[in-house]
Design goal:
- By secondary structure, the protein is an all-alpha fold.
- The protein has one domain (about 5-145): Globin-like (Orthogonal Bundle), CATH 1.10.490.70.
- It has helices at about 5-10, 10-25, 30, 35-55, 60-75, 80-100, 105-130.
- The termini are far apart.
């Protein structure tokens, strides 16, 4: 069975844990929201993340992240708060994989999820930086952080 199918089948276990993780971070904007709102938001992020993992295409996911960045920025969410939602989802998916997937598949399966969510986080950071600088077009790449020989 493919990772995306396994995660979809266990969505009702994964998403509430991610909501609890996010709530535990005590960020002002998210703590003011009803758990159902955070549940719906994380459901949407999860669905698009899993679709990207399944299709090996982050296009729709990145488009959604750009929408989130614009929306949250306009509502005065700190970058750190929005990034925490991605982290909560990622940590919860990782935990699920580590307890439910064969150990020999960890590297590949964790890599798939991490790649998609990293693309989302990179997009989120770039959008926030751009919006903070009066919509100047700023781009960066995580690959710029790694040494090359």
């Amino acid at each position: 069975m493919y990772l995306s199918e396994i995660l979809k089948e266990n969505k009702d276990e994964i998403i509430p844990k991610a909501v609890k993780t996010l709530a535990g971070a005590n960020f002002q904007k998210y703590s003011l929201l009803d758990d159902d709102v955070n549940l719906e938001r994380l459901n949407n992020l999860f669905d698009l993340c899993i679709e990207a993992v399944s299709k090996k295409d982050v296009t729709q996911f990145v488009t959604y992240v750009k929408h989130i960045a614009n929306e949250r920025y306009e509502k005065d969410y700190d970058f750190q708060e929005v990034n925490a939602a991605f982290n909560a989802l990622e940590e919860t998916i990782w935990s699920f994989i580590l307890t439910n997937i064969e150990q020999e598949n960890y590297r590949e399966e964790l890599g798939r999820v991490t790649s998609v969510l990293s693309a989302g986080k990179e997009t989120l950071a770039a959008m926030y930086a751009s919006l903070a600088n009066k919509n100047k077009n700023i781009t960066f790449s995580v690959s710029d952080l790694y040494c090359r020989e």
